[in-house]
Q: What sequence folds into this?
């Protein structure tokens, strides 16, 4: 049985090259492709591939390749996702691991190695070694512990909260009566302040901040209820 492969990359030239590479392998067949996240999710729902080869950067503010990977794994756990990228990025690797990716490979990889990575993913294996996974995830946790919400302006906090609710730039602009381009600038600024590259990271950060604030509020309420010691 041929391994059914789906391709997601916003560059047609890259998709064409990977398609030719897969077709030359003999045991791989490309059953679909897309250039954007929402299109990819709709296609994967229809074709149900064995492996989805996904580019990290899709030129879209609202959904990158790792967001697509997470969505695919949630909808179709049997579909293995192989993240393809031009850059060695520990944060992206950590996000890929947490999203359930079976592999994370550079576009500079040799053709035969990419084919073997697809085969490994289709067989239920992964191409990310355990030591690398531990290193990048530990680094992500260390950085998370140093989060400082006070570095953002009130408007940036407001936009961050809406990002955490899954709203797009357009939806945020409509709610706050701002131009979509203005919202995009705010998002870029707050991501830069937080040292993050993607909206999904900012949403996770917002969740951590909200959790800490909730815990503090519960603690204060408990203190008020108990009163001073000895009373």
A:
């Amino acid at each position: 049985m041929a391994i059914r492969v789906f391709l997601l990359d916003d560059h047609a030239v890259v998709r064409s090259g990977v398609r030719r590479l897969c077709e030359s392998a003999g045991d791989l067949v490309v059953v679909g492709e897309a250039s954007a996240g929402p299109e990819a999710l709709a296609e994967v729902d229809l074709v149900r591939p064995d492996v989805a080869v996904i580019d990290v950067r899709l030129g879209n503010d609202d959904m990158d390749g790792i967001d697509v990977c997470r969505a695919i794994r949630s909808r179709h756990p049997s579909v293995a996702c192989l993240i393809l990228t031009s850059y060695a990025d520990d944060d992206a690797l950590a996000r890929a691991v947490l999203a359930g990716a079976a592999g994370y490979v550079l576009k500079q990889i040799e053709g035969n190695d990419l084919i073997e990575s697809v085969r490994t993913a289709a067989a239920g294996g992964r191409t990310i070694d355990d030591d690398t996974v531990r290193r990048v995830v530990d680094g992500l946790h260390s950085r998370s512990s140093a989060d400082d919400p006070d570095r953002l302006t009130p408007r940036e906090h407001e936009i961050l909260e809406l990002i955490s609710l899954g709203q797009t730039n357009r939806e945020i602009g409509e709610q706050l009566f701002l131009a979509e381009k203005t919202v995009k600038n705010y998002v870029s600024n707050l991501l830069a302040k937080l040292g993050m590259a993607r909206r999904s990271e900012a949403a996770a950060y917002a969740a951590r901040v909200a959790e800490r604030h909730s815990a503090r509020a519960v603690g204060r309420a408990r203190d008020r209820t108990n009163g001073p010691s000895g009373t």
Q: What stands out?
A: The radius of gyration is 21 Å. Residues 7 and 37 are 11 Å apart (CA to CA).
